[in-house]
Amino acid sequence: MKATNLNKTPYSKRDFVDKLRAEKGMSVREASEIYDIFITDMYKALLDDRKIILYRIGSIRAMDRKPYSGRNPKTGESVKVAARKTLVLRPSEIIKRDLLEEGEVVQSAKAKKAKKATSKLKKA
């Protein structure tokens, strides 16, 4: 997929507050409080290892990564990478479909590996 919108400004709290003000007639303070409650609640849910499902966007969850051995690309030296937590965003089918450009296909890493393995078998 092309990275075409790198120069656009990010969607911020200010954008959300302005949207609530325009569409619901709220004050800046009320809209800002709603935003803060929503973000704080999502933050706490992630810290409690709960999955967050956002309709049309996808799901966000904290995931434990196991430790592994990596390699320093400059020196080639083997390096141990410690276990850690990371956030994972799994996009919904709706957003994947809507982000497609001119018939471009979005595939998961597993689907790409399977396709590659299948093509190798066909060549053999």
Task: Name the descriptors.
HU Protein, Chain A, 124 residues, two-stranded antiparallel ribbon, 2 domains
Give a structural overview.
The chain has 124 residues and is an alpha+beta fold. The protein has 2 domains: 50 residues, no CATH class; 71 residues, HU Protein, Chain A (Irregular), CATH 4.10.520.10. It is built from 4 helices and 5 strands; from the N terminus they run ααβββββαα. The strands form 2 sheets. The chain has a 3-stranded antiparallel sheet. Strands 3-4 form a two-stranded antiparallel ribbon.
Whole-number mean pLDDT: 85
Summarize the biggest pleated sheet. Answer: 3 strands, antiparallel
Strands of the widest sheet, in order across it, are 1-2-5
- Uncertain spans, ≥5 residues at pLDDT below 50? none
β-strand number:
5
**Structural class estimated from helices and strands:** alpha+beta
Regarding CATH, which class of the largest domain?
A: Few Secondary Structures
CATH architecture grouping of the largest domain: Irregular
Classify the helix fraction into a percent range. 40-55%
Beta-strand percentage? 15-25%
Q: Count the DSSP helices.
A: 4
The fold-level CATH name of the largest domain is: HU Protein, Chain A
Net shape: extended
Radius of gyration: 21 Å
Q: Quick one: CATH superfamily of the largest domain?
A: IHF-like DNA-binding proteins
* Distance linking N and C termini: 30 Å
State the domain count: 2
Helix/strand order, N-terminal first: HHEEEEEHH
